[in-house]
Amino acid sequence: MQESQIESAESALIERIRKGENDLFYALIQPYERSVYLTAYAVLRNPDDAEDAAQEALLKAFAHLDQLRSNEKFKGWLLLIALNEARQRRRRDRQHLYESLDAEPIETEDGDFTPQQFADWREVPSETLERKEIRASVRRALESLKLKYREVFVLRDMQHLSMADTAQVLGISVPLVKIHLHRARLQMREQLTPMFGKRWIERLPFFKGKKPW
Amino acid sequence: MVSCHRVLQELSNYLDEDIDPDLRAAIDEHLRGCHRCSVLVDSTRKMLYIVGDERTFEIPGGYSERVHQRLTEYFAKH
Ligand SMILES: [Zn+2]
Q1: B10 — alpha (psi -120 to 50), left (phi > 0) or beta?
Q2: CB-defined contacts A:B, below 8 A
Q3: In Å, how far from its chain's centre is CA A63?
Q4: ipTM more than 0.90?
């Protein structure tokens, strides 16, 4: 379906939900449940908190559906609710904890960044590494990003929002999205390279029951 | 001819194809002769491919069902 077709199908659903057909709300949010969770996770970095915030955001979206303006995209509006819910929680509950856990950025304040990792990712990692291991490394890498970089990265590179939609949800300009995205990508690559740069074959003796030393 | 520093600066725009055609051609030219920059571009592209794949980041099992449940309870009360 084209984006415009999706939007008009959504408008029709929203109209009926507003008139009392509550059950249609499940269908309306179903395509976005994952995005709502990921958006909350980008802010909170913790699966339980992210799910709490996501659930709350979805309830709020239902309760405030009449506030969605006719020219507003439902997805963007919904993700903004999720972002605000997660940000409120971050401020309210755990500020001290999150701040102390935030990793120091590798860059200097003016944004200069020098890549350190130049190992070649010769093998396609998704085919050679176990997916479990990939998941764990990606999660660790994401969690090490500064909040402002993680937010942009999760919306744009993990949820594939456009530059314009990313900027709109986060309430920042497109040029700033690009700057943050650039740094986020460099840092993600840097964090993941030690793992993916390794020649997987060098670790094979483990699987054959022989120690490599 | 562009420098390695310029390639680094433009990396993100280059990957998004959000770049002036002349600059793109100059970067392509640079990449043919610079191993470090090709590794940088290639590994960043692979990283994006990995994180953009839905299977890479799992949401908690049963999340969708719990959302459904909470909404059902909410509808019953309102
Ligand atoms: Zn170079």
Answers
A1: alpha
A2: 108
A3: 25
A4: yes
Domain B4-77, CATH: 1.10.10
Closest residue by Cα to residue A17 from A67, A71, A84, A65: A65
The model's pLDDT over B14-32, given as tens digits with 9 standing for 90+, comes to 999 999 999 999 999 999 9
Look at the pTM and tell me if it is higher than 0.90. Answer: no
Per-run averaged pLDDT (10 residues), chain A, 213 residues: 84 94 95 97 94 97 93 93 96 64 49 74 60 87 95 96 96 97 96 70 34 31
Indicate if A131 and A192 belong to the same structural domain.
yes
Residue A24 makes CB contacts below 8 A (sequence gap 6+) with A13, A16, A17
The closest alpha carbon to A38, from A161, A129, A167, belongs to A161
DSSP one-letter string for A66-129: GGS-TTS-HHHHHHHHHHHHHHHHHHHTTHHHHHHHSPPPSS-TT------------S-HHHHS
Give the pLDDT score at A117.
78
> In B, what residues contact A, Cβ < 8 A?
8, 11-13, 15, 18, 36, 39-40, 42-44, 46-60, 63-64, 66-68, 70-71, 74-75, 78
A73 occurs within a structural domain: yes
Write down the pLDDT at residue B61. 93
pLDDT recorded at residue A211: 32
A14 and A93 part of one domain: yes
In single-letter form, the type of residue at position B26 comes to A
Domain end, chosen from A97, A113, A146, is at A97
The C-alpha angle A79, A84, A90, rounded to 5 degrees, equals: 125
Nearest to A25 by CA among B75, B59, B62: B75
Confidence (pLDDT) at A57: 98
